[in-house]
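Possible regression after last week's pipeline update?

I re-ran a chain I had predicted before the update to compare outputs. Posting the input and the new output here so someone can diff against the archived version. Not blocking, just want to make sure nothing changed silently.
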Amino acid sequence: MNQQPIYVTPSEVIEYLYCPRFIYFMNCLKISQQEDKRYLVQKGRNIHQIKANINRDYLRKKIGCIDKKIDVYFSSEKLKLVGKVDEVLFFKDGTASPLDFKYTEYNERVYKTYLYQQACYALLIEENFQRFVNKAYICYFRSNNFLKEVTISKILKSKTKETIDEIFDILNKNYFPVKTKSKARCLDCTYKNICIK
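New output (post-update):
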């Protein structure tokens, strides 16, 4: 009997980049983060209701979008990746871009985790729509719906694929990876009481 293919999500890519041990605790040991108890996470999950109040047509026209698809679910056996994109935007030049809504403020920089998340979406869009993706858009709800354009380079796409492979290395070998180098991340970690130093 063939085993079903295993996929990861853009959220798991973010967790891995934050700390590789998240993947081990969540996926290998099946220990939940109990995120539903955390205020900001819950707020982030409510973003889909909040989006209904945003003038999204204005945002799209502002960047020259000619067509869109909303809440698109993708899966790719080739990429070993599944994910739901808030919006896929299409442009006159034949390219496409993901548009992602964040319940957070823009603080003059885009986090690495966000870039890799958008690269995951870009790879899924390219495979499923056969449209080249070289940029993504992030709408920061708590900064008055500030819309940030980010570049999705070939290098970023390649590094994202490597990251997915690294995650599968943990899953397939079931090994305990090296933790994040950031001690600050450990302070608020849901696994800090069971994580070996």
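Follow-up from reviewer: compared with the archived run. The mean pLDDT is 87. Marking as no regression found.
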